[in-house]
Design a protein that fits this description.
Length: about 120
């Protein structure tokens, strides 16, 4: 971790989906600032989903815990703003690999039928 980008190494746990645009944006913010984080897959691990619900009282993701502070149902853009406002990172000019404030392509308004066909299959819990 570069000292020019961060003031200290925060403890980060991220409750994410493997394929979600919002989750990808959160990952991209952590990569932009070279922040290590523990990813908890709430789709393939029911215990992680339950843990997130117990901590937040809600079922939406991405949910991120940074140094004990819960940021529920956030975009990468919101996570980045929180990190900057709280002095966890300092601004840099790096461009994130993916959009940090949008859903998956198949969830976008006016998505083409091909994008909808590529949507992940919904599974019941």
């Amino acid at each position: 971790m570069s000292q020019s980008q961060t003031t200290s190494a925060p403890k980060i746990v991220a409750y994410l989906k493997p394929w979600c645009g919002w989750s990808g944006g959160v990952r991209a913010v952590f990569k932009k600032y070279d922040l290590a984080f523990e990813e908890r897959d709430i789709i393939n691990r029911a215990d992680f989903f339950q843990e997130m619900v117990e901590k937040t009282g809600q079922t939406k993701q991405p949910t991120v815990e940074i140094n004990g502070r819960i940021l529920a149902d956030v975009s990468g853009e919101e996570v980045e703003a929180w990190l900057l406002q709280n002095g966890i990172v300092t601004p840099n000019a790096a461009v994130p690999e993916v959009p940090i404030n949008q859903p998956c392509a198949h969830e976008m308004p006016g998505a083409a039928p091909a994008a909808a066909a590529a949507a992940p299959l919904p599974f019941r819990r």
